[in-house]
Structures are given as structure tokens and as C-alpha cells.
Queue: 2 jobs
Job 1
Amino acid sequence: MSGWLDGKRALVVGAGSGIGRGVLDAFRAEGARVGALEIDEHKCEALAAESDDIVVVAGDATTAEANSRAVAAVVERFGGLDVLINCVGIFDFYRPLAEIDAEHLDAAFDEMFSANVKSHLHSVKAAIPALRESGGNIVLTESTSAYYPGRGGTLYVASKFAVRGLVTTLGYELAPEIRVNGVAPGGTLNTDLRGLSTFGLTDRRLDGPDRATELAARNPLGVALSGTDHAWSYVFLASDRARGISGRVVHSDGGMGIKV
């Protein structure tokens, strides 16, 4: 039985853990050949040790240089690129604007939007020529924060609204050669999602012994979703089964849209 992504050549940006790692594993299970761009060298080593079929590139996804290297490595190994996925993100742990010191606002803004927005811009920019050649597609990572208040602080929510805008405008700009869609995950188990260094939150994680119970209580389906659960939405959008879909989003959030 063939996989949904047989023959596809993909690059997953932010593939070392959480949703990105779930996407990488799901893509491989569905027949894709996959490359990974990851900033954490230990995660790169773990990916490389797992299989020599994964093209692993260490680098900072907020830079043009790292994204260009990653695209070039995938094209060189696999002969082209069909799918770009970006799962890069950092969090502000629900910090409202009123609680951000004015002297820290510029640095916090730059840090948040560099990771959550600029990384997407650089990865797409680097991949456009190869994707145009293959007639490929892009899936960016939005969030429930781009649709509902209270799912992050001011800067995080604003950054995810920006990614929502990228899905719409890039879908328009890159048609008809390249499809662009988004996935908007809800809260996720074991993401390793880190906080802003500007706020001294780099060692803080969205995790804990009651995390699953907390997440399940937020949504109508009462589910606590993992990166693997979210990954299947990326698989669908990246597949030829979604060839008529662009500029849209899959809400992998336990039914938040029907919550009263």
C-alpha cells in the first residue's frame, strides 16, 4: 500500500522536536524523503544518528544563509524539493503588553518576530525557485493564538496573526505554481517550546505533570494532542489529495471553533 507522500522531497524547518519532529516522522512514514533544518546541535546529532536517509542541516532558521544551505542540501541529495514545512516558534508565556517594561519591548519584539515570522519568510524565500520547478507546496505553522484571545501574550498572538497573514498573501502571490497552507495547532504535549530570552524564559517549558489534563480541559473534544497528532494535518496538506487547496488552514485544536 502506497504512502500519501510517496516520491515527495520535503524540508522541515524546526524538525528537532515537538510538532516539527512529529511532521518529520509522519512524512517519512508516508514515503517522503526528508531534510531537516534545526538550530540545536544535539537535536541534529540525534536526527543524524537515527537514519542516514535524513538530510540534517544545523543552522539558525531566522537567517537567509541557513535556509539557503538547507534547501541546497535537499536539492543536491534528492534532486529537487516538493514540500516546505516551517514549525519554528518561541513563546512569551502569556505576557500582556502592560507587563512588558518599555526598555525591553524593542528587544522582545525583535526576538519574537524574528523566530516566529522572519524564519518563515526566509525559509519560503529560499525554497521558491525549487518549489516553482517542482510545482510544490508550503505548509506554515499558525496557532489557535491566531484565532482566539488568551492563547498567548501580546507579542506571541501578534506574531501568529502575522503567520496567518503570510499563508493568505503567499498563497495569492505564489499561485498557480505553488500552493501555500497553514496548520493551526492547539496546545501541544512535549513541544519543547521555549520562552523569550529577553524575558529570561529560555529554560521554561510548556510542560508539567498536569499538562495533559490542562490541555484536554480547554477544548470540546477533551483531547490532549501531541506533535504526532498535529503532523497528519501537514501530511494531508502536503499531499496531492489537497491539490485544490491553497491559502487555507487546518485547525488541529480539539474543536476550538465550536466552543461556546
Note: The beta strands are 9-13, 33-38, 55-58, 83-86, 137-141, 179-183, 188-189, 225-226, 249-250.
Job 2
Amino acid sequence: MVRVRGRGQGRVNVAGVSCYCPGCRSHLFYKLHVHHGRKGEPKSFAWTDYRDLIVVTHQQLGTPVVWCWDNLNRHLVRELTDFAEENKGWLRVFQMPSYAPELNPQEGIWSLLKRGIANFVATNLTGLERIVKRKLKKIQYRPELIDGCLAETGLVIEAQ
């Protein structure tokens, strides 16, 4: 979370996935949710948003997907478990251990993003959204950065 000062009540949430395959280029996919602070407007992602991110990732990669969740409460809802079970032909889901961000390469992506936006000033929510998108695109098109986030965890992807 990056806190900013100002009168607005909005926020920009980001869900992202780092994709690795031996001998292939690493990928970063993400989805933004902008909350404008309006009454009745959802403040964060719904389980359907995470489902849609999984589906888009699968479609973009054109291959079966192994998905590793951290312990965010939205990741643990029954609907996502049911979705994974219904799509077990192309989707395998693993739960990461509690309190183990050092094993999650996506945490490295968030660190790169936070450092990338640290020196920018957003005058409004639209400006913040634009800055976040721009910085994520820069990471997205530099697979060596994404690879570095995996290397930092000490995990190794092996071909089978």
C-alpha cells in the first residue's frame, strides 16, 4: 500500500501475477481496480475479478497454469475453490504458507512498483492510476526484472 495525502477518498488497487516457464520469457499480468470513494462502490476486488485474471492469464499464455495464492482472504473464498475444481484440467492452485512473503515473487514486483512511483506526485486519482499503469508497463516489458523477482525467492522452476 502506498499512502498519499489529499482530500480525495479514492484508491487504486492492483492484482498481479508473475508467470514463469523454463526456456520462455517471463510475463507480468495485472488488473487495476479504482475506488472513487463513492457510497456503495466496491472498495476492492471481488472474487470474480480474481477469477477473470486467472482466465485471462490462461488465455494469454495458451497453456495450463499453476497458480500460487498468498493468504489474502479473497483468495480463500469458496467460489474460487469451486472455480479451480471446475477447471482442474488446466488450472492447479497451491496455497503459499502463511507469513511467507519471501517465497512470493509477486512481492518483488510490488517492491519495484513502489520504488518506481516514490518520486511522482499525483494530483488526483486519475493521475495516480496513470502513474501506476505506466510503471507496471515498464516492469512488464523488462522480463529480466520479473526473473529477478523469482531469483530473489530462491525458488527454481524446472522443466518436466
Note: Residues 125-140 form the longest helix (16 residues).
